[in-house]
Amino acid sequence: MKCKVLAIANQKGGVGKTTTALSLGAAFAARGKKVLVMDLDPHACASIHMAFYPENMRYTVKDIFSERGKLSAEKVVIPPDEERGFYFVPSHVRLSDLETDLRDVSGKGLILRNWILKYGNQFDLVLIDCPPHMGVILINALVASEMVIIPIQTDFLALHGLKLIFETMRTLNRALSSPIKFRALATMYDQRAGACRRVLNLLRKKLGNRLLETVIHMDTKFREASARGMVISQYAPESRGAKEYELLAKEVLSS
Questions:
Q1: Domain count, the chain
Q2: Could you tell me the pTM of the whole model?
């Protein structure tokens, strides 16, 4: 079985990256898929959201890199429970130390790809919540991915993050045998705001079919779910946000 690897990336924070990784992972799991979500952000927002506090974890994603991809999945992957339908690999706040630790390591950009090639066949999908800054961890995530999903807040300032991630992918594509595929996802959309409508129209004009049809609207249930340590489909399964991530899962699986 070959798993589908999706990186959720944007070099601007606050655009719904972690919300997308967790909510989409839960939506895939609800469709009967065996899903692994990996938190590669040193801020560990996804891990803390799911109550996996780095200081309490024996193994984290940092150990995958520290051991050059030799750490077994059995040690680092946390199985799902009754409420959380997906498998999970927590992050660590010292993940950023790897910039120095791996500086002179040969093949450092392929560590995650090789680990997924070895252990990913246990899953249907692997979702990677990426760090917001350029570096060895983000490069690992992008190189390991079959497709990059770029959440873009429907705000003019958020368009800068889109430019940055495009530049990163263009740089990597020069060294890769096949270019990195990507789809953009409009998030935090408020149809009452003229600025949001203008940004969404601009994205549709500029990106065409590279912009996913599903649009994630503003929904207070996202914040409430986070406060409870739950994903939105657990906390408010009938909410607009939960339904939109169900649509997104369907769209991504059919693409």
A1: 1
A2: 0.93
